[in-house]
Amino acid sequence: MSTAVKNNFTKVMGDSDASPEPELMMDVEIHDSDVRHFAQLGFALSVKALAKQHRFHENAVQNVYVQLNDYKEAMEVIEEMWDAAEEQAVAAILKRKKEDIKEEE
């Protein structure tokens, strides 16, 4: 039995469709005893990619996920965390620059 696997990283050979979720046909049926292993592997890779994308430690991403209902919500919170961190950095930099200018006067 062939199982279609969809993700953003694989593509069917010879498929000219540039859809965001190309398919890879596998001629392997995953054994029931291995489903948990591959699910954990996929989750670990997703956490690693999200952490790298937003420059957070993987444990921070996992901790957010544990507190929420699903991965989509966790992604949204991680994005909000990154936005907040950038805003805080800009505010802190501007504050220090203003303090430096006052000291120079």
Low-confidence stretches: 9-20
The total beta strand count reads 2
- What would the principal axes of the Cα set say about the shape? rod-shaped
Distance between the termini: 77 Å
How much helical structure, as a percent, in the residues?
55-70%
User: Class by helix and strand content?
Assistant: mainly alpha
Biggest sheet descriptor: 2 strands, antiparallel
Percent of residues in β-strands = 5-15%
Strand order across the largest sheet? 1-2
**How do the helices and strands follow one another from N- to C-terminus?**
EEHHH
Question: What is the typical, i.e. mean, pLDDT?
Answer: 82
In short:
The chain has 105 residues and is mostly helical. The chain is built from three helices and two strands. α1 (32-54) crosses α2 (58-67) and α2 packs across α3.
